[in-house]
Design goal:
- The structure is a homotetramer.
- The first copy, chain A, starts with 5 loop residues before the first strand and ends in a 5-residue tail after the last strand.
- The first copy, chain A, has 13 helices and 15 strands.
- The radius of gyration of chain A is 20 Å and the shape is globular.
- Chain A is of the alpha/beta class.
- In chain A, strand 9 and strand 10 form a beta hairpin.
- Chains in contact: A-B, A-C, A-D, B-C, B-D, C-D.
- Chains A and B meet through helix 6, strand 12 and strand 13 of A and helix 6, strand 12 and strand 13 of B.
- Strand 13 of chain C pairs antiparallel with strand 12 of chain D.
Chain lengths: 339, 339, 339, 339
């Protein structure tokens, strides 16, 4: 497939779907956005019009039935992912799927089995792996520059909690938010987790406790390669999106902090002042979304294994389920306890 | 014109022309790239094909004659700018023109007179004004946060000299390279220069001296508002593009440094290591090119005066000529000495 | 006592004792170093000679019996602290004591009871509280600048493990090393811990495991005020002493990183390079040692409660014992479980 | 002399004299402060009492006549330096002298001739050379890490102007303030200046203009080794002492910025905030004052040439005189024009 353009359809035209649509239409060499689908067909049409796309529909199955479409980007609501993956795989479409595949391990495994059976390419949307700073830290660790990893530290804070209605169906902070950090621990350490322990509370908003969730949490882990990890999360950093990682090892430390909208420095009688971090994921990971889609398109066109696989989609869910159980039961939980 | 889309043609499809073409095609709300022209008509066609543009030609006058085209972006070689400006103005096209307008003050004035007479919008491509960091420093100065400006400091270094053949026809370092810094002094200080003094030498490559130019220079200035300015330039910073500004005033200092491709930090037995600056202007000012074109399109659609005017195109050339004379004659030169 | 000089004797003239001796002799207004004692009387004499001190002895009881001595700084080996405190208190001497008081809670309580009974001033040597950066973070938190604390993050790494012989008698990493971080959690949060959980391993040197200890650890905590805390420790950061803290709260974040021996920046084709952190505690906390002793002298002369009290000496030992038990038993341990 | 202690007397017990007295008394291995002198004998006595020094006098000649004194630190007012140097040299005392030697080239030459004739060690107090950051930049340049120097950039700003009465007798900004920067240019570049050009104005306080001086200035230079230099000065940076240097060369750039009293970072809804630079020279160069005196004592005890020589005391005065003439005459001035 390497000498031609990949025709991609986007399924789900909400916030993240629009980003992928725009990137596919304008920033991904080798790809062409050829169709959009959304249960709200007007959304699909709006996006299609913006990017000069011929096909827009309220029914994603039309994309799966269209032989001219090579691949789909699944950006619909989480509860539809597993089903659409199975159908798309059966239709022979290569699949880029937003995270998570699902919160249910059985459904995830069924979806991945369908992918395997069909032999189509599958990439899960852990966008942070493609952030230039995080990718560089990964590269430094993989190159041996920090030696054997001993400690992984991750800070991950959102600027504001999602709506309460969303919190109630989100699967909880560990499956909705920390899942990205679980993926980052695996990505950076090159190891699976052995055991997870979580503490947390609703310090931002008591209504989140009433909804059965926490908004502030710390998760620690023992990894199979011996390294230890700690993640701290908050649903609300008033200064914006706070995304920092560090890998400390036998030869040194590699870390990456936040990026800012500009590099100004104001020095006055009150101190030295700089810009806050980029506000949220749309700003911080704008480049990562482009790079991850380029990587997907490249993998398909070159017939290579995508950089983020189905297993990468499954394991963080296992970790999230273990953290959830740990918090509930007040004890460390081994990943082997999770079915 | 505020309710419709601005149809823009790009004249000159070299490196910078392609950037503006891509931005107009994909990142500028309210604009549509409708035609390309280049003396090498294949270049025009190549760009047109990439961005689904219907019209591509080897003859820019076809664009000027096309009534459906509202504005042109002039990205051809410098020696053609003044003539095309005059013709485009006469054809009633709004004009975005890459810097400089020309190196000859008479030709600049004639071009600007044509623009005035035609009443079309005109913006000169001093892209650095739209860099988020530099724009923020300008905003801080304009807001009074640093008080009355006392000292402007600019460091501006390229990663490598241009080809010698280009050096010979470039007009010299002050007109080719420092011109951006002259614009920045005016932009940041809000003042014209009174007197200029320059020192320089060919420290990077003796062949540049043989070509009658210098590759390393320091220019100092007295401004009409009393502030003092210093600019240091080099044609070769081995670590990449080095672009830093500072405004020091009665209430403090506002500065902006370089941006990096990523925010990693590696700490090992040898020290603490971070990424080099973004390599050159295409990387560093990628966002600035988008923002400046948005500003141009916005000014035309809203019938406002563009943020960078014809006078902004003229004055840095006067400063460059004064610096050139200062270097040759070994004395400070008043701007009033330049015709 | 406010109008006269405090006569201080130093008991124990090892590495830390010499620092306090030098500071008392040269940098503490209101104090005079008047005597030194060390079981190796030559050490006492050497220090005395260096700082023009008249009295040097192999027997600390001579200092306690000397009516001209107002206060003692106890810098002898940990196993002697509790006894000397009791004797010094009985002798009416004000007491500055290096951390920890002891590893046995009964002996600590007995020592503190003696202090209380005698009514002398007592300050425990948690020097990091007086580090200008950490003190500033504390001040910002106390002032409300970060709002209600939600997460405390501490990274604390030594440049190299202590000798194995020391490891064997050190009480373990949590009582020997993390104890400073436990104090910092209390200092920054203004709260006691409720429950502690620890993971750890010997990743630096297997001989440390053979000695019954770990060299790499992560401790998490729930605090009584609701905040969560995480500490990560390593006995060996090849790049030097790594001491960083962060308090994240409802209104923002206050943090402090390492200090460097100089502020140089080298930029070359390989990247941007800066100095490593100050190598170890003698360099990093040089200023803190001066400030803490000034604070002690000030508290005595002004008859004020010292800034670091007996309770501040006791609680981190409780936390260290809880962490030690947590690591052994693989479960979170409440502080109330520790006798 | 290497096996014994150097007995030093301090002449002049004002602000800077007290610093050297304290350092000699407490922080300089190999040195002993044995006497103080000041025209106000009470000042001499006060300092002597503070540091347990036996001899204090209103007449510096008593120190020169005291055979037990090996060396003197001349910290009296500038107009007395040349005379005391000559007398001290004649008395066989090694000499540390605060900058400048004098503002008159003849008197400087006479003083240096007396030093040469006597064969005593002489070090001039250009303290900034011993600042750890600046010393590191010098070391990097000297090691070849930045290649051949092309551009030297120095920013040097005081927190507030000196009293007007001082301004009137200071010799002008270039001899009083920029003289340190002139020394730094020579120190960093390893080259003498060829030609100097200066612009300046009284932007901080018109009374400084009335006193015949400027408070804001930019000086540029051609150096004999081909490098170019620019210095910008202000008598008033409201945020404190601003001392930054940069050497840019064929292989990269070495720079050093300000130091801060602490390393805190506060991040809130308004931005990211850090500490201002250390307020003034007493704070910023506290360590440099210790290191320079250690270097002097070391040079005398080891019979080595001091790191800052008489020539290093002379040349910056020549540069200051050239800059003064350049400002007055509005033209570049060659150093060879200065007698």
């Amino acid at each position: 497939m390497s000498n031609r353009t990949l025709n991609v359809g986007v399924i789900g035209c909400g916030r993240i779907g629009r980003i992928h649509a725009e990137n596919l239409a304008t920033r991904i060499p080798g790809a062409r956005l050829v169709a959009t689908a959304d249960v709200t067909s007007n959304s699909a049409k709006e996006v299609a019009a913006q990017f000069h796309v011929g096909k827009a529909t309220g029914e994603y199955r039309e994309l799966l039935a269209d032989a001219s479409i090579d691949a789909v980007a699944i950006c619909s609501s989480t509860d539809t992912h597993a089903r659409i993956i199975q159908e798309a795989a059966a239709a022979g479409k290569h699949i880029f799927c937003e995270k998570p595949i699902d919160y249910d391990l059985e459904r995830i495994r069924a979806a991945l089995a369908a992918v395997d059976k069909a032999g189509v390419k599958f990439q899960i949307g852990f966008n942070r792996r493609f952030d230039p700073s995080f990718a560089k830290v990964h590269e430094l660790v993989a190159s041996g520059a920090v030696g054997q990893p001993h400690v992984i530290r991750i800070t991950s804070r959102d600027p504001a909690p999602p709506p309460l209605e969303y919190v109630k169906v989100s699967g909880g902070i560990f499956l909705d938010m920390t899942i990205h950090d679980f993926d980052m621990v695996r990505f950076l350490s090159g190891s699976e987790a052995e055991e997870v322990y979580a503490i947390g509370d609703a310090l931002v908003d008591p209504a989140i406790r009433d909804a059965g969730d926490v908004d502030t949490a710390i998760v620690t882990m023992r990894l199979k390669n011996g390294a230890l990890a700690t993640i701290d999360n908050s649903r609300k950093a008033v200064y914006g999106y706070d995304q920092r990682i560090e890998v400390f090892g036998s030869k040194g430390s590699a870390s990456a902090g936040n990026r800012t909208p500009d590099a100004h420095v104001l020095t006055d009688t009150a101190g030295v002042h700089e810009a806050k971090p980029l506000h949220f994921f749309l700003e911080r990971y704008a480049e990562a979304y482009v790079v991850e889609m380029r990587a997907f398109v490249h993998a398909v066109l070159k017939n290579q294994t995508p950089l983020v696989t189905g297993m990468d989609g499954l394991q963080p869910v296992v970790m999230g389920l273990a953290a959830t159980r740990s918090l509930r039961e007040g004890r460390p939980v081994k990943l082997s306890e999770i079915a």
